[in-house]
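Hi support team,

I've been running sequence recovery on a batch of backbones for a student project. Most finish fine, but this one hangs at about 90% for roughly twenty minutes before it completes. I'm not sure whether the input is malformed or the queue is just slow. I've pasted the structure tokens below so you can try to reproduce it. Let me know if you need the job ID as well.

Thanks,
M.K.
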């Protein structure tokens, strides 16, 4: 029983608890901050046009000739946010457990790299993409390894941890910077399928049947071989950081499909542990992503 209970404590996200959060997120998605620079610009143009006395037509022509076209101020909120959290080189410290702990000197993951991208802008800007320094390096090295081994693939990183760890509502874990959610790679007719990659946080609500087929279009399915390959690379990059994969959480019905692939067999041979039991609700949430705990 104790083992079962322990297994239940994984990434035990509560879908009922998630809804208000995601509703808030969607409102945040609709924020109008992008309007601000253009609104300021329009006001400025309006003010100048009001103050100016009526120029002659020749003066107008001269002004038009000399004035460069007005450009929207270029602002990149992601770059601005990343600039606030440069890597200070101090090793992070995970305190407590993934379900009850905190993170010291957490490191922000880059929003994107050559073959990966964080899945949701507002989640990123809300400070949910921090990791322990060693886990950050392991994940980045893993993606680097995939550049060679899975060159045709582009990956999506999902929620990580807060800068100081602790509760990452609605996740029950993700508290120490040692937990990472990875979006399942998809395929259609044997080719990478990426049209669902940009669903943002709504991606957590996609559902797949027990064979990994998307509920809305059975021709879109989880690419288990790619997923297994990514986990193998991650296992190696974690070891180089003195870590190991402690546990992977994936909907239990999907494990057969994963372990049937050549790389899935290698995962089993290496003894990488997959949680064996979840509450049904939690189980169903781990079909669009796989959760990895490092230690
Ligand atoms: Zn998770």
């Amino acid at each position: 029983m104790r083992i079962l209970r322990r297994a239940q404590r994984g990434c035990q996200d509560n879908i009922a608890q998630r809804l208000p959060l995601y509703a808030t997120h969607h409102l945040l998605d609709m924020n109008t901050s992008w309007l601000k620079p253009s609104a300021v610009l329009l006001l400025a143009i309006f003010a100048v046009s009001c103050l100016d006395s009526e120029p002659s037509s020749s003066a107008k022509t001269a002004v038009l000739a000399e004035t460069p076209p007005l450009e929207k101020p270029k602002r990149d909120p992601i770059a601005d946010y990343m600039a606030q959290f440069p890597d200070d080189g101090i090793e992070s410290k995970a305190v407590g457990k993934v379900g009850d702990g905190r993170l010291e000197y957490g490191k922000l993951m880059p929003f994107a790299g050559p073959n990966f991208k964080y899945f949701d802008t507002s989640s990123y800007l809300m400070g949910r993409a921090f990791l322990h320094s060693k886990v950050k390096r392991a994940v980045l090295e893993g993606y680097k390894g995939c550049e060679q081994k899975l060159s045709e693939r582009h990956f999506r990183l999902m929620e990580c941890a807060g800068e100081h760890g602790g509760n990452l509502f609605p996740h029950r874990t993700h508290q120490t910077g040692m937990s990472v959610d990875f979006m399942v790679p998809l395929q259609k007719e044997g080719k990478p399928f990426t049209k669902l990659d940009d669903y943002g946080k709504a991606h957590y609500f996609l559902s797949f049947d027990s064979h990994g087929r998307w509920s809305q279009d059975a021709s879109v399915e989880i690419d288990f071989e790619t997923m297994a390959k990514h986990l193998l690379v991650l296992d190696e990059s974690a070891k180089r950081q003195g870590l190991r994969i402690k546990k992977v959480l994936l909907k239990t019905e999907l494990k057969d499909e994963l372990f049937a692939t050549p790389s899935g067999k290698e995962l089993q041979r290496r003894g990488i542990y997959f949680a064996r039991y979840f509450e049904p609700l939690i189980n169903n949430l781990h079909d669009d992503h796989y959760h990895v705990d490092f230690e």
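--
Follow-up from support: It reproduced on our side and the slowdown came from queue contention, not your input. The first strand starts at residue 93 and ends at 97. No action needed from you.
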